[in-house]
Specification:
The complex is a heterodimer of chains A (159) and B (288).
Chain A lengths: L3 E7 L2 E7 L5 H8 L18 E4 L2 E4 L12 E3 L12 H9 L8 H14 L5 H7 L11 H17 L1
Parallel strand pairs in A: 1-5
Antiparallel strand pairs in A: 1-2, 3-4, 3-5
Helix pairs in contact in A: 2-5
Chain B lengths: L1 E3 L4 H10 L4 E4 L5 H7 L6 E4 L9 E3 L5 E3 L5 H6 L1 H6 L1 H8 L4 H4 L4 H6 L8 H6 L3 E6 L2 E6 L4 E3 L2 E2 L6 E7 L6 E8 L10 E10 L2 E10 L6 E2 L1 H7 L6 H14 L10 H23 L5
Parallel strand pairs in B: 1-3, 2-3
Antiparallel strand pairs in B: 4-5, 5-10, 6-7, 6-10, 8-9, 11-12, 12-13, 13-14
Helix pairs in contact in B: 9-10, 10-11
Chain lengths: 159, 288
């Protein structure tokens, strides 16, 4: 079958690409749009490294076809900082050294941002459950959780 | 691979029946895309159902029940306060499926049609006496949820059949339901055993009950003997003992790396007891 023309909005910008219907949204973001911030860890929805939001809902972009993005609004890690100014979550991750190799970090940041938009004042348990689908093999998670808690606190204070 | 986005279930059914080779329907995709990725299922035809009107909707039916669109995600179910108030057991079963990311896409119908005996959302639907509306080549029919699974990975659906909605009956007064499962981890794991119970009380006495078990037989199973043990009781120790005995008698599990048959059978009884207490409290309006 020939490729399908897809028009969608990524990080506020309208974009278009030609997708083979078997290609995942992750493939399309990385290979057609050059947005390589979303990572492929497992390709089967287990690790969370490819997390993006679609119409505000957190999903694994490896578990969605690129052609399903037609008419949706996608948000990826590339849209998180405001120019040179890091998002509070990003800054807290740096300050807490909540990453080592960094491969899981974009997915965790996108997932954590989705949590704080839904629940600005989560408990530590809520943060841990929400991020249960984001695997990190370096940090042992503790610094990640502390960074999210501090970012939440900072964002509540700023509001 | 042919990719279709029909705008009606009739069209989806017709396309599936006419397709040659392997056909899959796409809603949440959290099983289909994994199967495609691993190469276990490489569809020749993929039919995305999400362009059909109503597939993303949760609506109250005129009789006070619920109609849930086939593409409604677990996240959307959990956010629907009225549905959660009516059928907390149905929703808590679905919410145990996968991660937050998977919840953003995964659906009840997908969990049902994947055919896993351990599907966490299915016992709750069976206990709730939910049914599915099927659009097929000969028209539309309604079938109880427990009649869909035929065995691990298999359903009773025929070529051209597509589930077009889930129907949950009215909760009515003094009813409550609950679901629990056992997993070695607290999150992101597959049930070793599960149990859902829906019941209704008149004062302290149970007047109606349905009990369903998961992961302890080739399919999720309705256990009428276990329901009979509850009906007419006040959930006293005798009734609980009879419930546990009936649930364990209905178990026919496998031994695998996640649990032995003996362990699964034992745990199913323990879960039935706990779930009965939660459903009973909810039916009586106690906070749970």
């Amino acid at each position: 079958m020939s490729k399908i023309h897809v028009t969608t909005v990524v990080n506020g910008d309208e974009v278009e690409f030609l997708a083979d219907p078997r290609e995942t949204l992750l493939d399309c973001l990385r290979d057609h749009l050059g947005l390589t911030g979303s990572k492929e860890g497992c390709g089967t929805g287990d690790c969370g490294a490819c997390s993006v939001t679609v119409d505000g809902v957190l999903v694994s972009s490896c578990l969605m076809l690129g052609v399903e993005a037609q008419g949706k609004r996608i948000a990826t890690i590339e849209g998180m900082a405001n120019g040179e100014e890091l998002h509070p979550l990003q800054r807290q991750f740096v300050e807490h050294a909540a990453l080592q190799c960094g491969f899981c970090t974009p997915g965790i940041l996108v997932a954590a941002k989705a949590l704080l938009e839904k629940n600005p004042d989560p408990t530590e348990t809520e943060v841990r459950y929400w991020l249960a689908g984001n695997l990190c093999r370096c940090t042992g998670y503790d610094k990640i959780i502390r960074a999210v808690m501090d970012a939440a606190s900072e964002m509540r204070g700023a509001a | 691979m042919d990719f279709h986005t029909p705008s009606s279930f009739e069209d989806a059914s017709k396309r599936a029946a006419e397709a040659t080779g392997l056909t899959r329907f796409l809603a949440g995709g959290t099983d289909v895309l994994v199967q495609m990725r691993s190469g276990t299922v490489l569809p020749d035809t993929l039919i995305d159902l999400k362009h059909i009107p109503g597939t993303q909707d949760i609506t109250r039916t005129p009789d006070g029940g619920w109609r849930i669109g086939i593409a409604v995600s677990g996240a959307r179910l959990g956010d629907h306060a009225d549905l959660v108030a009516d059928w907390p057991g149905v929703v808590e079963g679905m919410e145990l499926v996968g991660s937050t990311q998977v919840q953003g896409r995964a659906t009840l119908v997908g969990n049902l049609c994947n055919g896993s005996p351990a599907a966490d959302s299915v016992p709750g639907l069976v206990a709730a006496q939910a049914s599915v509306e099927i659009t097929g080549l000969t028209g539309v029919r309604t079938v109880p949820v427990e009649d869909i699974p035929a065995g691990p990975g298999k359903t009773t659906l025929s070529p051209g059949d597509v589930i077009s909605g889930i129907l949950i009956p009215p909760r009515g007064a003094h009813g409550g339901d609950a679901y629990q499962r056992f997993t070695p981890r607290t999150e992101m794991d597959i049930a070793v055993a599960g149990c859902a119970i829906s019941l209704r009380v008149d004062g302290d006495t149970i007047t109606e009950a349905r009990v369903a078990v998961g992961a302890v037989a080739p399919t999720v199973r309705l256990v009428p003997d276990a329901a009979a043990a509850l009906i007419g009781s006040t959930l006293d120790d005798t009734a609980i003992d009879a419930l546990v005995t009936a649930v364990r008698a209905a178990c026919n599990p496998i031994d695998d790396k996640r649990g032995t048959a003996e362990f699964r059978t034992d745990v199913a009884g323990v879960l039935a007891k706990r779930v009965a207490h939660i459903a009973y409290s909810r039916a009586k309006g106690d906070a749970q």
